[in-house]
Structure formats: structure tokens, C-alpha cells
Design goal:
165 residues; globular; mainly alpha
């Protein structure tokens, strides 16, 4: 490591520090999901569903699409990064060289179920808050409120520690 510059050492240290804290990784994945959510919400609300939603002034369809695509994004990155150690342990226990579609489907089903409360909370809070603030700010506030329940549910159930046999 002596060949690295001070900046490179600092970046490597920061990446190592992030790697040790699962909730921080979950937050980074959540931030990427927030970007996906906001982009899809905006595009859906302003363009894709504009004619349908214009009279309601509430982003019902675009919000449902945004939450769905953000959930797929978050599941993928949480599986590949946040809980990758637990996923590898489960795959090793199953004796699979690569993940089976059955296992991924089961995990996705659990992830969606575990995240359903947070998604519902996000949906309702966004709609309630959008009456008093911009719908994008309302959505960010709702996402933050739902993130803690999503982490705990997925840490304890979807990607729970499994005993090594």
C-alpha cells in the first residue's frame, strides 16, 4: 500500500469503513433507489401519465411505477452488496455454483413482502404530505421514514443469518 497516494489511501480506507457497516451500505443502496424513484416519479408524473393524472393533481400511477422500479433496483444491489455475505452462505448451503432462479425468486418475494409496509407507508405519506408541500419533497420525506422498517425487516428475515452447517 506504500505505492498509493494519500488520496488513494483515504479512498481505500473509506471504502473499507463503509464495507464494515451494513446499514450504511443499505443507505447507499437506498440513495440509488431514491434517485430511481424520483426520476421515474418525475417522468411519470410530468410526461407518461400526465393526461391521466392532470385532473387529480396527485401522482397515483407514477408513484406506483416509481416504487416498483426502485424496489427492483434496491433488491438487486442489496443482494449483490449489502447482504452478499449471507447470500453466499445460503448459496453454499444449497450446493449451487451459481444462484438458482428459485432462490432469487424466494428472496425477491421475501424482500417485497418485508418492504411492503415501508412501501405502503411511503405511498400514503407521500400522498398526505403532497397536499402541503411539493410532491418530490413529500416523497423524499416518506422514503426516509420508511427506510428504518425496511432495513430491519430485510436484515431479520429476507437476508437473515443462517447457521453454517
Amino acid at each position: 500500500m506504500s505505492g498509493h497516494t494519500r488520496l488513494q489511501r483515504a479512498v481505500l480506507w473509506a471504502l473499507g469503513w463503509i464495507e464494515r457497516y451494513r446499514y450504511l451500505k443499505f443507505g447507499i443502496v437506498g440513495a440509488s433507489g431514491t434517485v430511481v424513484n424520483l426520476v421515474v416519479l418525475y417522468l411519470g408524473h410530468e410526461y407518461l401519465f400526465n393526461a391521466i393524472e392532470a385532473s387529480y393533481k396527485k401522482p397515483y400511477l407514477s408513484l406506483a411505477l416509481a416504487i416498483s422500479l426502485a424496489t427492483i433496483n434496491n433488491f438487486t444491489w442489496n443482494r449483490l452488496w449489502t447482504w452478499s455475505d449471507r447470500v453466499r452462505t445460503l448459496e453454499a448451503q444449497e450446493g449451487a455454483e451459481r444462484p438458482s432462479l428459485r432462490l432469487i425468486g424466494q428472496e425477491f418475494g421475501q424482500y417485497v413482502t418485508a418492504s411492503a409496509f415501508g412501501s405502503g407507508l411511503q405511498y400514503v405519506l407521500t400522498l398526505l404530505l403532497s397536499g402541503t408541500m411539493d410532491y418530490r419533497l413529500a416523497n423524499i420525506t416518506a422514503i426516509l421514514a420508511a427506510s428504518v422498517s425496511n432495513f430491519l425487516a430485510n436484515d431479520r428475515w429476507t437476508f437473515k443469518r443462517r447457521k453454517e452447517e
